[in-house]
Design a protein that fits this description.
3 helices, about 160 residues, alpha+beta, globular
Length: about 160
């Protein structure tokens, strides 16, 4: 794993939040729901503020994977569907995870490393998911992926 030029924030607890530009959410002719979605590490966007992806699908993946991490799983990968980007999380002490912001490739590149509170990140994902669901409801959009996201959010609210 190449680590040259990456930012290391492991000496303190950083803030990693999920962000979605709600005004960009749209349903494609095939029914997929897309929008600008990214993570923000201490106010720095990854991959980019304008990153467009399958927002409903990845939020569902991320809730389920991060929830598993909070319940004892040792690692979780929060992948973007489009492009070579992912957030790799490893349990550090039960409430904290060490995360890497990674650009996958022949030689993966770690762009930043930090320690974060896993429940704070899970809450951030749940809040964004609720906002995305509300936008979809306002437009009367529906899809299997949207129903899976609704179920993931419901399940995690019960678990907290």
């Amino acid at each position: 794993m190449a680590k040259q030029g990456h930012t290391d924030h492991r000496n303190r607890i950083s803030t990693l939040l999920i962000k979605c530009v709600l005004a960009t959410i749209a349903q494609s002719p095939s029914g997929a729901i897309l929008g600008n979605v990214y993570v923000e590490l201490d106010s720095r966007p990854f991959p980019d503020v304008g990153w467009s992806d399958f927002v409903v699908v990845i939020l569902c993946w991320w809730i389920d994977r991060l929830a598993a991490l909070t319940r004892g799983q040792k690692t979780a990968v929060l992948s973007f569907m489009d492009g070579p980007f992912e957030v790799r999380a490893s349990d550090y002490d039960g409430t904290t995870a060490e995360i890497e912001l990674v650009r996958r490739g022949t030689r993966s590149t770690t762009l930043a490393v930090a320690r974060i509170n896993t429940l704070t990140l899970l809450s951030s994902i749940e809040l964004v998911a609720a906002d995305v669901i509300a936008v979809c409801d306002r437009h009367s959009w529906d899809s299997d992926a949207l129903e899976r996201l609704r179920e993931s959010v419901r399940r995690e609210r019960v678990q907290h």
